[in-house]
Specification:
Structural class: mainly alpha
Shape: elongated
Order of helices and strands: HHH
Number of domains: 1
Number of helices: 3
Length: about 80
């Protein structure tokens, strides 16, 4: 039982340490690449919806709903 308590203290000590520069830089670069990728997908989606002849109102509704769902999903982490 004492071992389980020691493991919890060790895990808590690891969480309390501040992040270094490389993890923060890596997170920032990954976040930037994720934003660029989503912008490319939104552009592709708009071009595709325009190609199939969807009305501009429905294009706006579809892209806005995708962006809203993406922002809600990102905040859940």
């Amino acid at each position: 039982m004492a071992d389980a308590k020691d493991d919890g203290v060790m895990a808590e000590a690891q969480i309390a340490q501040p992040l270094g520069r490389w993890p923060i830089l890596s997170y920032g670069v990954g976040h930037m690449l994720n934003d660029i990728t989503s912008a490319c997908w939104f552009t592709y989606l708009l071009l595709f919806l325009q190609q199939i002849g969807l009305a501009p109102r429905y294009k706006r509704i579809s892209t806005d709903s995708i962006k809203l769902l993406d922002s809600i999903n990102f905040r859940s982490f």
